[in-house]
Backbone:
């Protein structure tokens, strides 16, 4: 069967069908709620990045005279905190650390947890049993307790907070990765790839990753809000970020004493945390349904 | 001695110009202008491939289709009752009382958290207002009727404790518990092993004769249809394309699609030879072609087939084919194809 | 006699079905199965669910490792004498579920080209081959090459799966219920394609199916399996016309007749096939066999030769063999 020049189809003319990700994207765009959540989340991220340009004042510079000014005070649109610092600027700057503490531990845990879970899921057998049972030990602790315990042992500070949150998120992500991989591994296209003689590493790279990373990532995005709230909790307990840095959880803690004097003011960091976690959660829900391919 | 005898002057089932459309963009025309009658005590086999509309036709008779996004036109009468107009209590009485259905997968049709006995008894209580003692007795009687060994013990079994064939028998017992006049069977033996399938087919045939029910049996398997049916209807792209007695269809199919199906079932094929396969695949039901829906796959299609409504050839009573070639005198000539 | 191209020698595969110690349950999926495949022939494998035909297929292509027994390709034991990777090129498999058989994130061209690249072909070479093969199985490469699995019909996907197997230029293809999920008219097209390819390329097939009609049509020889064992094996013509194992007879009698005047009146067997966990002693069929007698419950029947190349594992054939 000689291959002649005529029967080679130039690749350019091959009917490029709508790829998977494009189909996901168009389905996602049809989901109004998810798009709104995505816009809010993107806005928050932009706000964090461009904080120095947006914020009207220095978040660390306070005026004793303006302590606990209510919302709408001249020059302090969202009031001032217990040290007379501009609330709006602190909230804008606070997005930086809060988002950082929300996203980074999840990303690191996503990388490590996926690797562990995919390996356990693909290899199966004893490797799977040992890995997953070991992770189950960590999984057995409530995540808040675990984060507090690790942070407490390591001491306060951003890095230690980051580390403790990462450790908290590895087991759940690994577990999801393992179950997704196990279900994919049983499919016949993996058998077909095994029958081709490809090495396990190659099968994982070419056939498993593309089909499991999406669902794992979606699950991980749903953890961003949890991570933010946990980080806020750690800061609130004095374990994560320390003053005078602006971070929503920490702000909530320091303003707690003002709750009877300026309840609306004290609630502002909470509102931010709530808004951010809701928008990330709805974004992740939207992604999940958009990635649900029907035959 | 048929407990469910109907007034002999009108058929048990009468379907006229039934069309079923699922709304959407574009809408799916699942069933198109289907008309047929079924006498009580008769077995009609509806033969078709996946997406031919055979299951949808069956579900319409029980009104099992999702109401909100389905548009049903035409007339459907079962035992003199207008099925499409049924509402509330009357519809509930119709389902399981007058007509009942058995499915391909009994593990989905049976409730996993109740025993077989409880499920049958509950149906009897609901439809006949019987006491639970009477209903349980009926359940036992039904299990014996479908020849489940040690029926008394099986009454207390949950569906998962039974083998595939036993579950299928249990589902038949459940469907027949209220002595329906019409049994609708949707591929009930497709998931079964060959030696079990024949047992279920024979059982259905016996019970049908004993109880004098009308049965509509939907299947993709000609062999199965021949085993149970008196008459056959071949369905393609939502329409009946040919009907007749089983012998008519098997020995003297007039529609090219029916012939293609017979060839694909290796009727009379010499082992090892190429099969006379129908090329292509059925059309999408949301984009049906003009004229004859089979024309794009038909070896004998001509311009006429692509444009005009298809003429119907009629033979004896209940024997017809929707094909322009069948209407012509040389209907037999179509049997032999030029190489 | 020529060396068989592929042969199975006393293959055994047991699966654990839970439980520990004395209560440990074992599914005897395949028990002591041996057979040979001559170059260019098609062996049909029939049997009901739980008979071990799919497990046999996976053992044959080395997707499962047997508990004991071996597979030989061209006389060489796979593993010790023939490296697995070299064996993979020669023996390929097509699965029942055409959708699950294709990576949903890969285009058809990429799915077919994957195999050759594993065996050292360049990406361009592999793509060219994939395009040729798509064309050969009746799919226009320009239209279908860039598509994904969900954009094809079942019949088209199965053609792609056949093309993927062919991309290795294998000598043997194991088809595990490869046409069973297709509509009849499409099934006939794919059967034609398989028969054409067999002739063109001198392929050897192991054709596994529950459909006795189809198996008869495509096979030279047929193997009947029951609860993990070979009940009968022989030339298709003699096995269908003169079956020697009561189970084969029952299977054939259970086939719908396709003749309205000669409908089946009695089911050849009662009840369902037993569970392969704890199969019956002796001849595994004796619990359902109408002709069971003395030794059946206790002695495992050996494969008695009832005609040339025709073996039946049934005690009823014992006397005959001693005469022959």
Residues:
């Amino acid at each position: 069967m000689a291959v002649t020049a005529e029967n080679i189809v130039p690749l350019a003319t091959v009917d490029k069908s709508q790829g998977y990700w494009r189909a996901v994207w168009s389905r996602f765009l049809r989901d109004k709620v998810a798009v709104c959540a995505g816009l809010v989340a993107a806005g928050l991220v932009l706000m964090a990045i461009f904080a120095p340009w947006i914020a009207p004042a220095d978040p660390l510079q306070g005026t004793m005279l303006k302590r606990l000014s209510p919302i709408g005070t001249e020059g302090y649109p969202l009031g001032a905190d217990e040290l007379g610092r501009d609330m709006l600027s602190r909230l804008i700057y606070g997005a930086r650390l809060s988002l950082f503490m929300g996203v980074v531990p999840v990303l690191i845990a996503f990388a490590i947890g996926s690797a562990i879970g995919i390996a356990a899921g693909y290899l199966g057998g004893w490797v799977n049993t040992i890995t997953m049972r070991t992770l189950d030990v960590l999984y057995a602790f409530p995540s808040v307790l675990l984060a507090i315990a690790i942070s407490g042992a390591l001491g306060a500070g951003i890095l230690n907070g980051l580390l403790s949150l990462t450790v908290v998120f590895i087991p759940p992500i690994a577990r999801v990765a393992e179950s997704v991989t196990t279900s994919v591994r049983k499919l016949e296209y993996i058998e077909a790839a095994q029958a081709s003689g490809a090495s396990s590493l190659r099968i994982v790279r070419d056939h498993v990753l593309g089909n499991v990373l999406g669902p794992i990532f979606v699950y991980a995005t749903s953890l961003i809000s949890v991570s933010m709230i946990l980080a806020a909790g750690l800061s609130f307990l004095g374990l994560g970020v320390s003053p005078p840095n602006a971070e929503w959880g920490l702000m909530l803690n320091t303003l707690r004493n003002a709750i009877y004097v300026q309840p609306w003011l004290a609630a502002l960091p909470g509102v931010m945390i709530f808004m951010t976690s809701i928008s990330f959660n709805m974004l992740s829900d939207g992604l999940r349904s958009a990635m649900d391919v029907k035959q | 001695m048929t407990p469910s005898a109907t007034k002999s002057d009108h058929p048990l089932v009468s379907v006229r110009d039934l069309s079923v459309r699922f709304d959407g963009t574009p809408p799916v025309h699942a069933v198109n202008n289907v008309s047929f009658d079924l006498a009580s005590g008769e077995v009609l086999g509806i033969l078709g491939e996946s997406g031919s509309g055979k299951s949808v036709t069956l579900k319409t008779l029980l009104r099992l289709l999702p109401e909100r996004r389905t548009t049903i036109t035409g007339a459907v009468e079962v035992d003199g009752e207008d099925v499409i107009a049924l509402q509330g209590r009357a519809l509930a009485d119709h389902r399981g009382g007058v007509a009942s259905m058995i499915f391909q997968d009994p593990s989905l049709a049976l409730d996993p958290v109740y025993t077989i006995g409880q499920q049958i008894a509950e149906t009897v209580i609901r439809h006949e207002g019987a006491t639970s003692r009477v209903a349980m007795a009926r359940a036992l009687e039904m299990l014996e009727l479908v020849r489940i060994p040690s029926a008394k013990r099986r009454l207390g079994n949950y569906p998962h404790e039974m083998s595939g064939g036993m579950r299928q028998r249990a589902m038949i017992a459940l469907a027949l518990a209220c002595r329906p006049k019409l049994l609708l069977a949707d591929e009930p033996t497709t998931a079964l092993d060959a030696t079990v399938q024949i047992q279920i087919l024979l059982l259905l045939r016996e019970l049908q004769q004993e109880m004098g029910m009308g049965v509509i049996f939907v299947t993709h398997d000609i062999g199965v249809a021949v085993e149970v049916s008196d008459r056959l209807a071949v369905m393609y792209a939502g329409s009946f394309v040919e009907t007749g007695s089983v012998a008519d269809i098997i020995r003297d199919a007039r529609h090219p699609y029916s012939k293609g199906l017979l060839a694909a079932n290796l009727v009379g094929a010499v082992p090892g030879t190429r099969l006379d396969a129908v090329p292509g695949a059925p059309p999408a039901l949301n984009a049906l072609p003009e004229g004859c829906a089979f024309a794009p796959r038909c070896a004998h299609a001509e311009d006429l087939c692509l444009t005009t409504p298809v003429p119907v050839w009629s033979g004896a009573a209940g024997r017809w084919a929707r094909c322009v070639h069948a209407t012509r005198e040389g209907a037999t000539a179509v049997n032999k194809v030029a190489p | 006699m020529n060396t068989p191209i592929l042969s199975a020698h006393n293959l055994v595969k047991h699966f654990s079905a839970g439980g520990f110690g004395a209560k440990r349950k074992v599914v005897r999926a395949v028990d002591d199965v041996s057979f040979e495949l001559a170059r260019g022939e098609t062996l049909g494998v029939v049997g009901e669910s739980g008979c071990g035909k799919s497990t046999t297929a996976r053992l044959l292509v080395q997707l499962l490792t047997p508990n004991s027994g071996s597979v030989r390709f061209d006389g060489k034991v796979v593993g010790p004498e023939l490296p697995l990777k070299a064996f993979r090129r020669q023996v390929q498999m097509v699965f029942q579920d055409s959708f699950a058989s294709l990576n949903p994130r890969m285009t058809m061209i990429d799915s077919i080209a994957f195999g050759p690249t594993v065996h050292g072909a360049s990406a361009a070479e592999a793509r060219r081959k994939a395009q040729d093969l798509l064309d050969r199985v009746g799919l226009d490469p320009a239209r279908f090459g860039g598509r994904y699995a969900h954009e094809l019909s079942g019949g088209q996907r199965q053609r792609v799966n056949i093309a993927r197997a062919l991309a290795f230029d294998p000598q043997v293809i194991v088809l595990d219920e490869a046409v069973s999920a297709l509509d009849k008219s499409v099934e006939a097209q794919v059967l034609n394609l398989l028969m054409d390819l067999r002739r063109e390329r001198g392929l050897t097939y192991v054709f596994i199916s529950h459909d006795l009609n189809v198996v008869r049509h495509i096979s030279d020889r047929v193997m009947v399996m029951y609860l993990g064992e070979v009940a009968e094996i022989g030339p298709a013509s003699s096995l269908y016309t003169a079956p020697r194992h009561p189970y084969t007879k029952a299977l054939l009698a259970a086939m719908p007749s396709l003749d309205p005047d000669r409908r089946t009146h009695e089911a050849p067997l009662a009840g369902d096939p037993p569970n392969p966990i704890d199969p019956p002693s002796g001849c595994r069929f004796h619990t359902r066999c109408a002709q069971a007698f003395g030794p059946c419950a206790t002695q495992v029947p050996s494969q008695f030769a009832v005609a040339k190349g025709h073996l039946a594992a049934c005690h009823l054939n014992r006397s005959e063999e001693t005469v022959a």
